[in-house]
Amino acid sequence: MTQIRHAGTAELRIGDKTLSLPIVEGSEGERAIDIGDLRTETGLVTLDYGYKNTASCKSAITFLDGECGVLRYRGYPIEVLAENFRFVDVAYLLVHGQLPSQEERSRFSELLNWHSMIHEDMRHFFYSFPEHAHPMAILSAMVVSLSTFYPELAQNSPEEEIDMATTRLLSKIRTIAAFSYKKSIGEPFVYPRHDLKYCANFLNMMFSSPVRPYEVKPEVERALNVLLVLHADHEQNCSTSTVRLVGSARVNLYAAVSAGICALWGPLHGGANQAVIEMLEDIQRDGGDVKKYIERAKDKTKAGHAPLYGFGHRVYKSYDPRAKIIKEVYANVLKAMEERDPLLDIATELEERAMADNYFLERKLFPNVDFYSGLTYRAIGIPKSMFTVMFALGRIPGWIAHWREAMSDPEFKLQRPRQIYVGPLRREYTPPKPAKPARRGRKAK
Ligand code: ACO
């Protein structure tokens, strides 16, 4: 990992004491005040709800500039990766730090094929979930279950074992995701095929059946590759931070990733792609009254207030570069499928109205990756309940890369934030007096 640069000091004055804090600088010029000694020196901690100003680690994986709409994996712009590379190449890049050579690519594909089946006993687990179980719950449970079938990884496991677990997880999660869908619709599981590439294999497991073969359209396969590439990493977002935090207790890779899947499920994070479609369907049922939903999102005092799902981002204060790419991919999929989606008209009107509204402009709330991803999945034929699973499928290489980076970082520590206690002061406990024993020998009146 490139070393952090020291870039001077910051002075912090507390009463009559002045503390000199080092300023550090990353490779893209981001600067941070290192407060590592703050509590030891002053007895004070910092308070930062939502970690809006707090860097939890150094990382060499993804660079993000929210003001300028820049996203790069290992230095490569997202636009270049989405245009020129398959998801599997990008997964390799994130995990190993460089794009694969021809030989590495073939070996990686071979390994992904080799590991694509899940243990036959795991197949039976799917039958134990209730009929309407959310696929994200199933996915998280199945991923943590992998640790019971395959050897656990520790912080100091040899590199080859870590590589093996990485490939195993990348490959098996696709089979688990497709099986959880087949279970939800009561169809037999379709096993992975060695002759198909990663995305085509997944589409085949999702949509073919013993009585109905599935033809993988190249435009759909390409769209899925792009979607997964766009989701592959996004530095210290909520689910990745979860993987790092849970991983900091030195649990195995499967347990840490399973926790990340649960974090991703939430509607303020990856679950927003499902929430967007549900919101668009609500608007459609409501007669297409887009204005009403915009007003509802703006007025936080109104009963039934909900944000405009698919808008806003903690880091992007300009158009999310991923949303731009997805918009184009979506148009190509609709063309290939020769379809029209009435929800697209609603989405277009919603975006136009929001982008002309001062509330959204002043707060720099632009469409995010989830605004068009759900519509694209819908056009491919993937049901709403599976949208966040698709996001998880894409995010797997990012989670793995961050877990590996954290485990090999000599400075990485158990993550344990402080708090500012605001509860009651010490209270005294007075034990109740023992009840007097009832007198014997008295006759009842
Ligand atoms: N609709 C309406 N108002 C919004 C929205 C929205 N989508 N997003 C933010 N705001 C408002 C907030 O209410 C706040 O208003 P105020 O200044 O009047 O109090 C202001 O904009 C700033 O918002 P914060 O909540 O401080 O922004 P934060 O960075 O904490 O939230 C978040 C980011 C959670 C993504 C938020 O924008 C949101 O809820 N969006 C909708 C859900 C969504 O699409 N999530 C997916 C994000 S992308 C991803 O995780 C893959």
What's this model, at a glance?
It contains 18 helices and six strands.
Report on the architecture of this protein.
- By secondary structure, this protein is mainly alpha-helical.
- It has a three-stranded antiparallel sheet. Strands 4-5-6 form a three-stranded antiparallel sheet.
- Helix 6 runs antiparallel to helix 11 and helix 12 crosses helix 15.
- The longest helix has 26 residues.
- The protein is globular, with a radius of gyration of 26 Å.
- Bound molecules: acetyl coenzyme *A.
Topology diagram in text:
Layout: E1 5-14, E2 17-25, E3 31-33, H1 38-42, E4 62-65, E5 70-73, E6 76-77, H2 78-84, H3 87-96, H4 102-114, H5 120-125, H6 135-149, H7 159-184, H8 198-207, H9 218-231, H10 238-247, H11 253-265, H12 272-285, H13 290-298, H14 321-337, H15 342-354, H16 358-362, H17 369-380, H18 387-408
Antiparallel strand pairs: 1-2, 2-3, 4-5, 5-6
Helix pairs in contact: 2-9, 3-18, 4-7, 6-7, 6-11, 7-8, 7-18, 9-14, 9-17, 9-18, 10-11, 10-18, 11-18, 12-15, 12-17, 14-17
The site of acetyl coenzyme *A (ACO) has 19 residues, from helix 17.
What is the CA–CA distance across the termini? 88 Å
Bound ligand species: acetyl coenzyme *A
Number of helices: 18
Can you write the helix and strand succession as a string? Answer: EEEHEEEHHHHHHHHHHHHHHHHH
Assembly state of the chains shown: single chain
Shape: globular
Order of strands in the sheet with most strands: 1-2-3
> How many β-strand stretches?
6
Q: What structural class is derived from the secondary structure elements?
A: mainly alpha
In helices, the fraction of residues equals: 40-55%
